[in-house]
Amino acid sequence: MTNSNSPLVDRYGEEAAPLQQIDGYSRLEQMIGRGSCRSFKQAKIDPALIQLLCAASLASPTKSDLQQRDIVVLSDPDLKSQIVQLMSGQGWIANAPHLLVFCGNNRRQRRLHELRNRPFVNDHLDAFFNASVDAGVALSAFVIAAEAVGLGCCPISAIRNAPVEVSNLLGLPDHVFPVAGIALGYPAETIPTVSPRLPMRATVHMDSYTEDKLDDEIEAYDRRRDGVLPYEQQRAENKFGTSTSYGWSEDKARQYTQQERQDFGRFIRDKGFDLS
To answer: Which residue, 76, 97, 54, 57, is CA-closest to 188?
Structure first.
């Protein structure tokens, strides 16, 4: 929930220069004040609307017009259930009326080379990276489009927890791979929870990267976030104990002491990518 009359203050703890008079300012405020939705009504969305959202998503920028991203819309309840079961610790996803999977696709590009009898000479890490970024850009555009028409959604990176199984269930061939899922539906709550972000002083750089005051910014951010959105439980208490000052930095440090997706590189190589 918000705590002030300014989405910028709620999100970043700081106000920007007054620009309320520019065209589209209200839409920017909506984007800054958005929140991921994990609680949905059970009403189904018209399939035509989902197709329209996909159209808006895939109209987003794409590297060199290569269009290396696909969207798999899950309509089979049994298939959706099998995919959800692979995402451990994400029980709320089962209650989302719709689930989509965004994929990187370098397969079509390779097919173009076969059709036109041209050598494929860029078989290295960038081929995977370009397709991944393309899928991420489309996913972001889908979120903006969905929220513009009153829907709620939440990206799901846990789709990569079991990439082989997900790939098999979705029938993804070589050089096509899952990047993220999206849970989609009509939100059960009308006011989104605004998750405070690091101050823009820490993440927006002018001309060159700087981190002179990063440690101080992180400490201040921990305090600000704890004041408006404290963690309901501490991660891995059995391993690290209970902290009296548990904030974002401690939570994220604990999170990445746990191994996850250690075999994702192998999966991508098995999909035919050369990551050198």
So the answer is: 97
CATH architecture observed for domain 47-192:
3-Layer(aba) Sandwich (3.40)
Q: Where are the alpha helices (DSSP H) in the chain?
A: 7-12, 25-32, 47-58, 77-85, 107-116, 125-148, 163-170, 200-203, 214-228, 237-240, 248-255, 264-270
* First-to-final CA distance of the chain: 45
Any idea what DSSP says for residue 233? S
**pLDDT tens for the 276 residues of the chain, in order:** 445 678 889 999 987 666 777 888 888 989 999 999 999 999 999 999 999 999 999 999 999 999 999 999 999 999 999 999 998 767 899 999 999 999 999 999 999 999 999 999 999 999 999 999 999 999 999 999 999 999 999 999 999 999 999 999 999 999 999 999 999 999 998 778 899 999 999 999 999 999 999 999 999 999 999 999 999 999 999 999 999 999 999 999 999 999 999 999 999 999 999 999
Tokens representing 38 are: 């994990």
Query: Do residues 43 and 97 lie in contact, with contact meaning Cβ atoms separated by under 8 Å?
Result: yes
Report domain extents, the chain.
Answer: 47-192, 200-255
Q: Which residues of 133-146 are buried (b: 16+ CB within 10 A; e: fewer)?
A: bbbbbbbebbbbbb
Tell whether pTM > 0.85: yes
